[in-house]
Amino acid sequence: MRTRTAIVSLLIGLLLVSGFALAAEPVHITVATGAVGQELEISREAAARYMELNPDVKITVLDTPDMVQDRLGLYLQFFEAQSPEVDVYQIDVIWPGDLAEHFLDLYEYGGKEVAELHFPEIVDNNTVDGKLVAIPWFTDAGLLYYRTDLLKEYGLEPPTTWDELEAAAANVQAGERAKGNQDFWGYVWQGNAYEGLTCDALEWLASNDGGSIIEFDGTISVNNPRAVEILEQAAGWVGTISPPGVIGFAEEDARTMFQAGNALFMRNWPYCYSLGNGPDSAIAGKFDVSPLPAGASGAGAATLGGWQLSVSKYSKHPEVAADVALFLASYEEQKIRAIQASMNPTIMSLYQDSDVLEASPFMGSLYDVFVNAVARPSTISAPRYNEVSTLFFNAVHSVLTGKSAASDALEELELDLQDLTGLPVK
Ligand code: GLC
Fold first, then answer.
1. What are phi and psi of 33, to 5 degrees?
2. Cα(275)–Cα(278) distance, integer angstroms
3. What does the pLDDT look like over 290-316, one tens digit per residue?
4. Which atom of ligand 1 is least distant from the CA of 92?
5. Measured between alpha carbons, how far apart are the two ends of the chain, in Å?
6. Topology of the domain covering 143-303+375-421
7. Which residues surround ligand 1 with Cβ inside 6 Å?
8. Of the residues 4, 26, 319, 365, which has the fewest C-beta atoms closer than 10 A?
9. Global model pTM greater than 0.70
10. What are the domain boundaries of the chain?
């Protein structure tokens, strides 16, 4: 009897211990994501779906600064400390080259099976020394947003050149102000001194045959008459068709103004589309998107943007972290993003998905804009792209604020880029 009691209590003891083991602390994964527009909410919803399927994992979604250089600064602090605090990082399309050393090779964690579903150019961009340092999550390209109701009212078509944009913006701005809206502006865009300005200004240059700062062949091309010309034109928008404050604008500043009904045109990324048609938007159903206008090249240009997911080399749970990253970037999750938040998938077949095309028709009609977008010179200048871009946007900003003449700013920039990169001038 005694022995039986002993055995029974031993068994109970064992069950309790294993029960505790089963209910052990979940694996904790932190994903650092953006918080622009609806990004944070939809990332949290995606994390909740993962946790529902994997109750032994707890994901914290950490929001990070909107402006690219600020976000990079935060990430660099984590890397410097080799911190395991963040397991998965949302990284910009321009960062794989600069940051590769801090990330695991996702080819070794299930990335091989899914890489071929994504745009090959983005997979190439994310492959550094044969390692897949990031799985593509969503892609971006600069678009022109325009008010369909106002263009119709004023008998105008969406502009196909910068000159047409200027004329339409001035015309409608004057008309709307005469009707009493003193806050109305013709054109809003990203003019603050940060990565967003690099994107906008690269579009100006490329659309005007002014090159792409540093070319694919490694020559510095930025100091040329076409670039000077278009920068002067853009500087002329500040305080005329664009608010004086545009030189402090990032994406969300432009969106807020456009979405409130106070601008005719806006340059922005696809995420603004679903928000613009949302319940609290003043312009729902009253706008559309088109390619950005052309300059001397005869064709508009869109800068290639977009974000990827990388797993930190310093993560304590690399397998689980990679599983989370691949889940977030999966077909089903990209589909939800495309429908709910008009963020462009990187999985090619989603561009044929009827639910996606119904929610965000521009993903089909402007498909060419997305596949022909102009890349920033991040691969050629890695690991110094951020410094290249900083020199570029500061030079452009000094032209926009009237501090420098475009010709002087680009001449100086050319010298600075030579010093920094050691690359030759074209
Ligand atoms: C968007 C783009 C990103 C770019 C940034 C600039 O988030 O996707 O590539 O660097 O805007 O503000």
1. -125, 175
2. 5
3. 999 999 999 999 999 999 999 999 999
4. 9
5. 94
6. D-Maltodextrin-Binding Protein; domain 2 (3.40.190)
7. 68, 92-94, 140, 195-196, 199, 251, 269, 305-307
8. 4
9. yes
10. 7-140+306-371, 143-303+375-421
